[in-house]
Amino acid sequence: MRIRTPRRTAPRLLAAVLSGLATAACLGLVGTTTAAAGPAVDASATAPAEEAEPVGPPQDGFPAALGYSLLHPTTAPSGANDWACRPTAAHPRPVVLVHGTFENRYANWAGLSPELKAQGYCVFALDYGGSGSGPLMATGDIPTSAGQLAAFVDRVRTATGADRVDLVGHSQGGLMPRYYLRHLGGAAKTAHLVALSPTNHGTSLWGLGLLARAFPGGDALLGSSCPACAQQVTGSDFVTALNEGDETVPEVSYTVIATRYDEVVTPYTSSFLRPAPNVVNQVVQDHCPLSLTEHTGIGYDPTATRLVLNALDPAHARRPDCLP
């Protein structure tokens, strides 16, 4: 059977997002919560633990989730940020979800967060790296964003009583935590980093441009106010320095989950970390050849979801689902 490589052009991505926005507008009328537009810079990391956050409905695809977040820019994904949650013996470490460039905690994790919660995890998700109001986050200086992650992890550890957390990140959200682990003391507070299509060895300007065009307003941010974009370009000073010497810290386990159809991180193998005893590099299509998931969709792919669950709980790993 010949599987055709999908042509994920910018117009098709934008059309999908606009379709999702229309769907989200309907959801916004019947959703359980409504968020007022306003400053969204790291609100989840600075709000008191007892403060209730707006929560959006679960989603089964990225375009609809992004569309909903455009209307509700401070919304958290279902299942996340229950500050009264206490880890169990089965799942003793909270899971912290870290979104990617131009994305936000809801758009990235409206599918995975409720799944993790249903599996019995304490789940937390932050917005970071934004400027002003609006849902397009993770555009700021990456070391500064890593500091926001550090503060959020400390808040999670204090609230839950857990010594260490597991991090699950997408794109920049898989790269930026590596700075936290190496330079901000995160290695002592983290057991596992699971990264979906991370920009570990950078991406091209073409890839960043295609990513920006998938988000209304992304082009303007790319051209004027996205330090994280320049820092993620292949060969940048930031990427070069981060990958000098050992790419990992020995105290932490790393799982990278990539897709052959990644149109942002090209080649897709740029996501992989250098082989080491604490590194597992995986490809979605090695488990499901029928999967056509690409960069923004990998967080909603059922095969990738099972690989994340297997990485977080290897003692109860299951063969990934394979759905076309």
Outline the fold blueprint.
Elements: H1 10-30, H2 43-46, H3 62-71, E1 95-98, H4 105-109, H5 112-118, E2 123-126, H6 142-160, E3 165-170, H7 172-183, E4 190-196, H8 205-213, H9 218-224, H10 227-231, H11 237-242, E5 253-258, E6 279-283, H12 284-287, H13 302-312
Helix pairs in contact: 1-3, 6-7, 8-9
Spatial extent as radius of gyration: 18 Å
Low-pLDDT residue intervals, each spanning 5 or more residues: 1-50
Instruction: Report the span from N to C terminus.
Output: 13 Å
According to CATH, what is the topology?
Answer: Rossmann fold
In CATH, what is the class?
Alpha Beta
| Element-level helix/strand string | HHHEHHEHEHEHHHHEEHH
- Beta content comes to 5-15%
Sheet with most strands: strand arrangement:
2-1-3-4-5-6
Q: What would you call the shape?
A: globular
What is the percent of helical residues? 25-40%
CATH homology-level superfamily: Alpha/Beta hydrolase fold, catalytic domain
Largest sheet: 6 strands, parallel
- Average residue pLDDT: 85
User: Could you give the count of β-strands?
Assistant: 6
Named at the architecture level, the CATH assignment is 3-Layer(aba) Sandwich
Structural class: alpha/beta
The total tally of domains equals: 1
Number of helical regions: 13
Description:
This protein has 324 residues and is α/β, with parallel strands linked by helices. The chain has one domain (10-316): Alpha/Beta hydrolase fold, catalytic domain (Rossmann fold, 3-Layer(aba) Sandwich). The chain contains 13 helices and 6 strands. It has helices at 10-30, 43-46, 62-71, 105-109, 112-118, 142-160, 172-183, 205-213, 218-224, 227-231, 237-242, 284-287, 302-312, and strands at 95-98, 123-126, 165-170, 190-196, 253-258, 279-283. The chain has a 6-stranded parallel β-sheet, sandwiched between helices. Strand 3 (165-170), helix 7 (172-183) and strand 4 (190-196) form a beta-alpha-beta unit. Helix 1 (10-30) packs across helix 3 (62-71), helix 6 (142-160) crosses helix 7 (172-183) and helix 8 runs antiparallel to helix 9. The model is unreliable at 1-50 (pLDDT under 50).
